[in-house]
Amino acid sequence: MIPDAAALREKLYDSILGADRSEAGLMLGAWSDKYGFPAIIEELLDPVLRIVGERFAMDRISLAQGYVAGKIAEDLLALLESSTEIATSRLNKRGIAVIGNAEDDYHALGRRMLGTFLQIAGWTIVDLGNDVLASTFVDKAEESGADIIGVSAMMLTNARNIARVRDEIDRRGLGGRVKLAVGGAVFVMRPDLVAEAGGDGTARTAMEAPGLFERLVYGTESSP
For residue 150, which of 121, 10, 2, 54 has the smallest C-alpha distance? Predict the structure, then answer.
């Protein structure tokens, strides 16, 4: 637990409202050194980004402020990706995961956070980026020998495109070997969409995703 987390969240939110990316970066860097990246993301960054997303949807913050929020998150991920936590993770080898955004989805931040936390947990990541066709997901899974495909979607229409990935997995007879994890804001709001999209499971946050991947692939969160 981070002491005075509520006050720190308010400071971070104020820096976003002021479009002060530099100040936010300095604060997050200092807090990460003190409390560690996972705690910072779980207790500070993720809650603030959720508030920003909600208020942006209600037209209570500007497009520029939403853009700055995304860039602040990207800055923190860049720090995390260059940290010793990523380097140490290479000693804890897990399986191979193919990840990407669903067809017509271009919201990269959630996918980047997913990839970062999977790497920390020891997974080898094949990141296909945005707007990925169902056939491309499955092609890469077969090519890389992946155990699981993770597909991110922000909006309802994009989430429904994930069903094509399920259809492609089943068409190739891979349903018993390659798992399908789904994620994104729409699945938090509509858990019933997991089944509609053909997903084997979902996680509410990127930090919870490694546990989900472990359960789906190995049936446990411990080493297989």
Answer: 121
